[in-house]
Design a protein that fits this description.
Elements (H helix, E strand, L loop, with lengths): L2 E5 L1 H10 L6 H11 L3 E5 L9 H10 L3 E6 L3 H10 L3 E4 L19 H13 L3 E6 L3 H10 L3 E5 L1 H5 L3 H20 L3 E5 L7 H4 L5 E6 L1 H10 L1 H12 L8
Parallel strand pairs: 1-2, 1-8, 2-3, 3-4, 4-5, 5-6, 6-7, 7-8
Length: 244
């Protein structure tokens, strides 16, 4: 069964833009649970533009489903993760000026910096995932680091407006998923996925979890959060492992 992790960062964005106490991140997480999501994802950024430190502790204390913490390899954030002990940590690249995460982590070039962080998180019983582009060099580097999961960056595919580009990117994602599976890695995917692009994503084999945020929160403006999640789960229900 293909699982859904709902990223609720942009619920916090609405709150932070006005400095109010609403909408409540914990209430959003509870709606994710009620709708049948398998986990909740939040990105605790260094600039705290949306999710705040107190949010992640409240989620850890109250969530009954998996908490996936996205984070940069930053010492202060790593310290929080070790204290918090979420179910999973996904290490991502992070730039202050970006609107959202713009690409995958360059694991191959930063293995030495990532190695102690991965070891520390694993020591505390935290499942570690690396957010990477569909590049077998990056997949191989992730396997060498001993992480159990990768998350493939699907943004280039989902945001493409040209058929030749999307076909090429889909082939890269399929190839990387197959390569990861052969290397013993579990495969997640995320970025840019919405109700229009989900059918392309489901052509990728060996997927475990899709982490989807912005499109679900945006859809919730019109349908409500629980309905938006249920719509996505319904689309995902026909996943056959990508082996059409």
């Amino acid at each position: 069964m293909l699982k859904l992790g709902v990223n609720i960062d942009h619920v916090a964005t609405l709150r932070q833009v006005r400095g109010t106490s609403y909408p409540d991140v914990l209430e959003a997480a509870e709606s994710c649970e009620s709708a049948g999501a398998h986990g909740v994802t939040v990105h605790l950024r260094e600039d705290r533009r949306h999710i705040q430190t107190e949010d992640v502790y409240a989620l850890k204390e109250n969530l009954k489903i998996k908490l996936n913490l996205e984070m940069a390899n930053s010492p202060k954030i790593v310290d929080i993760a070790v204290d918090l002990c979420p179910d999973e940590v996904c290490l991502v690249p992070e730039k202050r000026e970006e609107l959202t995460t713009e690409g995958g982590l360059d694991v191959a070039s930063h293995k030495k910096e990532l190695e102690p962080t991965v070891a520390l998180l694993k020591k505390h019983g935290i499942i570690v995932s690396l957010f990477i582009d569909p590049d077998n060099r990056q997949v191989a580097a992730a396997a060498e680091l001993g992480v159990p999961y990768i998350e493939l960056h699907t943004g280039t595919l989902c945001n493409s407006s040209r058929t030749d580009e999307s076909d090429r990117e889909l082939r890269r994602l399929i190839d990387s998923a197959v390569f990861a599976n052969r290397a013993g890695l579990k495969v997640n995917a995320g970025h840019g996925i919405n109700l229009d692009t989900i059918m392309m994503i489901m052509k990728i084999p060996f997927l475990d979890t899709l982490n989807i945020g912005h499109s679900i929160v945006a859809r919730a403006v019109f349908t409500g959060l629980e309905n938006a999640i249920k719509e996505m789960l319904e689309r995902m229900a026909c996943y056959d492992g990508g082996m059409q």
